[in-house]
Amino acid sequence: MEDQESYRWASNPIQKIEHLSSSDDASQVMHLSVESFEQYCTLESFCGNDDGYAVHNSPSTASFSPNDSQSYPSDLQDSSDNTCGSPVSRSCVTNNVSDFRHKLRELETVMLGPDSDNLNNQITLEEEKWKYMMEAIARGDLKDALCACAKAIVNNDMLTAEWLMTELRERVSVTGEPIQRLGAYMLEGLVARLASSGSAIYKALRCKEPAGADLLSYMHILYEVCPYFKFGYMSANGAIAEAMKDELRVHIIDFQIAQGSQWVTLIQALAARPGGPPHVRITGIDDSTSAYARGGGIDIVGQRLTRLSESCKVPFEFCAAGISASDAQLGNLGVRPGEAIAVNFPLMLHHMPDESVSTQNPRDRLIRLVKSLSPTVVTLVEQESNTNTASFVNRFNEVMKYYLAVFESIDVTFPRQHKERINVEQHCLAREIVNIIACEGAARVERHEPFGKWRSRFMMAGFKPYPLSSYMNATIKTLLMNYSEQYTLEERDGALFLGWMDRPLVASCAWR
User: Fold this and answer.
1) Which pLDDT tens digit goes with each residue over 3-23?
2) Rounded Cα distance, 69 and 169, in Å
3) What is the 3-state secondary structure (H, E, C) of 234-303?
4) How many helices and strands, by DSSP H and E, does the chain display?
5) What's the rounded Cα separation, in Å, for the pair 458 and 480?
6) 277 vs 275: CA distance, rounded Å
């Protein structure tokens, strides 16, 4: 990132103007003419840090930004003072700003001819844009400033983008308010987008299990402090238990086994089933991220679940499938006659490329493959967000709204300065944020879709909705009582939605 010198601009606006003046492009010269200098003259109130935002240096474990650019406002302040206070300014124009602007327009008309009206309109629009950005920075409106920076990058306006990035670096913090913490990672996403390094950052920020047998992984900490994973596991297990209540042999195919935590409560529930437990077989699909989170291979999961099943007196068998879900074929799933099949998609289908990425469309291919198994039930848990095919600016705004709600919910449980909170957000959330903002094509693996889109995909594959039980809904409501009252639970369109205040965050549904 440090080599991206093409994105740097002179900290002194006079140097920039002199550079442009030497070019043959008159429109570039006028683009930063007196109106631009007049705008620089208004920067006096922005030279210091906003009192509402303390500047924090990110710890080395959470810092992946390039070297900070030079601080522009102080240089602009000096140049504006020199410009406004020069003898030429006092002798040639009155103190009336309107007269000053009018005389300049007259001069431009004489020099440039009839086309100067269009140029003046462009300059006015440029003035308004900079005024809007200056005001956003002054009032500490990180949302507007971040969005303006994203738009500048889309428009290839590197001057604006670099200036905003410099200002934003002074106002974001991994230990600050939720919007400041989110802003720190969104800013890094924008930097990575310019440097084309988003994919590398995504791969580097994996949820590694800390050293030491007594330490929990970051994912498990997030599992404990927020109800998102528990909500997904409980709702999916409830649908599976209901569908399998009369079956003697149950085969669960889990397309992202992770640490196997989801199946602990289900095995315990099946052990207490009237008439005795069924024979349970779990096929666990592995991936590299899960291996990092576990601190070892997929066999670790099988050993844990086997010991649990023995203690509960549940006949149990574990089958490891060390393949990517994208590569899964019928032969990898170990289907046997006489078994009732339950398929579990836990927050993983959005990692599958779809028709917008590949003509092979692995996302729909996997759904159709599962349908060919004639499963008794299929459970789906996904983030309720739309970041798949949306344009970059809309995707950027969606990331801001969605993850701000998540960061706010974490704020209720974790103190601001808590080191583990920083690690959880960096390793479990920042990598998603950076990937969505910085990457395109096959490199962008975080491709969330809202429930309506998932419903269309499943129904096109031949599935029908499997209603979730009212008993399970009541159980989840009881679970949420242990957390903040600002969590919400809503049932609609055959799905269950967990939200933070008025924002749905996770959707759970079942199919057959």
Assistant:
1) 444 433 333 333 333 343 444
2) 9
3) HHHHHHHHHHCCCCCEEEEEECCCCCCCHHHHHHHHHHCCCCCCCEEEEEEECCHHHHHHHCCCCHHHHH
4) 22, 8
5) 29
6) 7
Are 99 and 93 a contacting pair, CB within 8 Å? Answer: yes
Strand 316-321 relative to strand 279-285: parallel, antiparallel, unpaired?
parallel
Q: In angstroms, what CA-CA distances link 346 with 13, 228, 248, 349?
A: 53, 11, 24, 8
Nearest-angstrom CA–CA distance, 348 and 195? 28
> What HEC string does 377-416 produce?
EEEEEEECCCCCCCCHHHHHHHHHHHHHHHHHHHHHHCCC
pLDDT digits (tens, 9 = 90+) for 381-436: 999 999 999 999 999 999 999 999 999 999 988 877 777 888 889 888 999 999 99
Written as six digits, the tokens of 305 are 């679940």
| Best CA proximity match to 281, nearest among 345, 349, 335, 346 | 335
Q: Which two tokens stand for residue 238?
A: 């409830």
DSSP 428: I
Amino acid code (one letter) for 11: S
- What the block records as the tokens of 261 is 């935590």
